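To: structure desk
From: M.T.
Subject: fold request, one chain
Message: Could you run this one when you get a chance? Sequence is below, nothing fancy, just the single chain.
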Amino acid sequence: GGGGGGGGGGHGFDRSRHPSDAIDPSAAPSFGNFGVPVYGARGGAAAAPSAPLAGEERVAYLRQRHIEIGTDAVRRAVAEDHAGNIEQALVWYLAAVDSFTSADMFMAAGAERDMLRSKVAGYRRRANELEPLAQAAAAARSGGASPASGALGWSGGGGSGGGGGASPASG
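Reply: Done. Structure tokens follow.
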């Protein structure tokens, strides 16, 4: 029996109302640089400084670097999500959550930190939406049963636990 879903690569969801449409990749979290000096000038990325940093300079560098990595991961996640590559989108959303969570550790309390946490909650929510779809795709590809749900280390509620282990898709 053929089943609905129509078009869009047969993923079984309506591409005209895609949940990641709320995430605009051109406006991926533009956190600025929080008044942090950016080391290096390669495409605006914070290149590793030539001499070891200490104290506030080190904290500023690490915060900026994690934000840059997370922003890149979000852009990739949204692109993969829009392209219907669920498993890769999930991997990139999780990478963004991980990187932004690391950046959060280097931030002082305030509006920027609150905004970052709000964004992370949205990316985590989208990852939770994609997880069962990615598991189903992996099971269909392998012809076997899907792994137990909740493999990401969280189950929807806001918690403080880490995500942890292996990524749900490789390659």
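Reply (cont.): The chain has three helices and no strands. Let me know if you need anything else for the meeting.
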